Amino acid sequence: MSKVIDIAVAGAGPAGLASALYFKRAGHQVAVFERFAVPKPVGSGLILQPTGLTVLAALGLLENIVALGSRIDRLYGADAASGRTVLDVRYDAQTGGRFGIAVHRAALFGVLFDAARRAGISVETDVELQEIDNSGDRAFLTDTTGRRIGGFDLVVDATGSRSRLRRFADAPSEPRPLPYGAFWASLDWGDGFEPHALTQRYDKSSVMVGVLPIGRPDHGGREMAAFFWSLKPADLDAVRTAGIEAWKERVISIWPEAAAFTSQINDFEQLSLARYGHHTLRRPAGRRLAVIGDAAHSTSPQLGQGANMALLDAAALAHAVTTNASVEDALEAYCLARRRHVRVFQALSWMFTPFYQSDSRVLPFIRDRLVATIARVPPAPQLLAAMVAGTVVDPFARAGLKERDWTSVVQEPSADRSR
Ligand SMILES: Cc1cc2nc3c(=O)[nH]c(=O)nc-3n(C[C@H](O)[C@H](O)[C@H](O)COP(=O)(O)OP(=O)(O)OC[C@H]3O[C@@H](n4cnc5c(N)ncnc54)[C@H](O)[C@@H]3O)c2cc1C
């Protein structure tokens, strides 16, 4: 679009901030609204895949995030009792020098938020949006105090999996809660763990415990790990009643080395319970409305694609706005650009999650015996690497992105990291 348009971005998570940066750089008027009084990241850590890293590179933020995060070359998981390898995915099964960068959420948030501030983007905080009036020529937002904000040519709903605004999309739907969630904590890095791998232990599919090196939350911060333990939200009260020591003993009975992390936990207050839901909006758009990120599609973090898909949505929407003559055409182009990639990954996540997080006795048996064996035979390692990287279907071309050759990206060695 050659003319300047007024855009409201709801939500200052990865999707909202990336989208605001794209629009501002394209010369549009953009304002971000965030419900938190002080914008802050939620949760522990996540892996940025070559997909999300390509978006950050397009925004000129790759070096900033690489400097804070931890390079991931391998995802490794073993059965806790037998030690048998259940999962061993290596990015280098494919060419191109791919890797992941695991980050503390505060690092991703900080890099995007600083860039937004440098770009002069207005971020209004303490504004909880609850309604869109998109019946006229311009869209208006209403917050929980009843204030009417606008009008805008386009509203971007980037308010995450519990969005209150997506009900204004053309075909709204809500997430279905998944039975398993997880305790997450950001802790000091522990000696004896692989510094460039996500490492997990499983007991059937009802127990999954994992360690992910996530680098530092900010420059000068300590090297940290995200530590997680799968848990049904329905079992939370029973676990709390049994006490923190009982929970720690249970973790160590599954994975004795995890004592390096449980020894840092003295209270349930240090653990956040993440609840997961699964849903995909059939059409992530409405009149003068684009829905991006978790608001449009959320799932369990089993495949670790959520933040990456959120960044891809932001890039695809900005590309659609730049290359189309009207907001309506841009929204149509955005939906088309993301449809295939989102549906494939949502379906893969729906299929794979029960193998790792369910009460089934059959699925973990198949996973441990059959899948683990097949996964070693080409082309399975290449396919698994593409699945983890988020590139089973091309997410780049329709978002106006081009993946780089990653072999030239070098992470500065950190003294802490090499322990
Ligand atoms: C435990 C856990 C582990 C994960 N691991 C990974 C991983 O390894 N890799 C990966 O790619 N993804 C992972 N994810 C998923 C990832 O965190 C999400 O996909 C990603 O944060 C989505 O970004 P978003 O910007 O769409 O939404 P969010 O990050 O949820 O941001 C939404 C923002 O909108 C604000 N907001 C909400 N409602 C309103 C309102 N009404 N008005 C104004 N503001 C509002 C919120 O305060 C928030 O700032 C994980 C998720 C969890 C829970």
What does it look like?
With 419 residues, this protein is an alpha+beta fold. It has a single domain (6-177, 277-401), classed as FAD/NAD(P)-binding domain (3-Layer(bba) Sandwich), CATH 3.50.50.60. Helices cover 32% and strands 25% of the residues. The strands form five sheets. Strands 6-5-15-16-17-14-18 form a seven-stranded mixed sheet. It has a six-stranded mixed sheet with strand order 8-2-1-12-21-20, with helices on one face. The protein binds flavin-adenine dinucleotide. Flavin-adenine dinucleotide binds at residues 10-16, 33-36, 43, 46-47, 127-129, 158-160, 164, 184, 274, 293-295, 301, 304-308, 310.
Concise overview:
With 419 residues, this protein is of the alpha+beta class. Helix content is 32%, strand content 25%. The strands form 5 sheets. The chain has a 7-stranded mixed sheet with strand order 6-5-15-16-17-14-18.
Features:
419 residues, alpha+beta, FAD/NAD(P)-binding domain, six-stranded mixed sheet, 11 helices, 32% helix, disordered C terminus, binds flavin-adenine dinucleotide
Question: Topology, pairings included?
Answer:
Elements: E1 6-10, H1 14-25, E2 29-33, E3 45-48, H2 50-58, H3 62-68, E4 70-72, E5 74-79, E6 85-90, E7 100-104, H4 105-118, E8 122-124, E9 129-133, E10 139-143, E11 148-152, E12 154-157, E13 176-177, E14 181-188, E15 197-203, E16 207-215, E17 224-231, H5 236-242, H6 244-254, H7 259-262, E18 272-274, E19 277-280, E20 285-286, E21 289-291, E22 297-298, H8 306-323, H9 327-356, H10 362-374, H11 380-389
Parallel strand pairs: 1-2, 1-12, 2-8, 5-15, 12-21
Antiparallel strand pairs: 3-7, 4-7, 5-6, 9-10, 10-11, 13-19, 14-17, 14-18, 15-16, 16-17, 19-22, 20-21
The structure holds flavin-adenine dinucleotide.
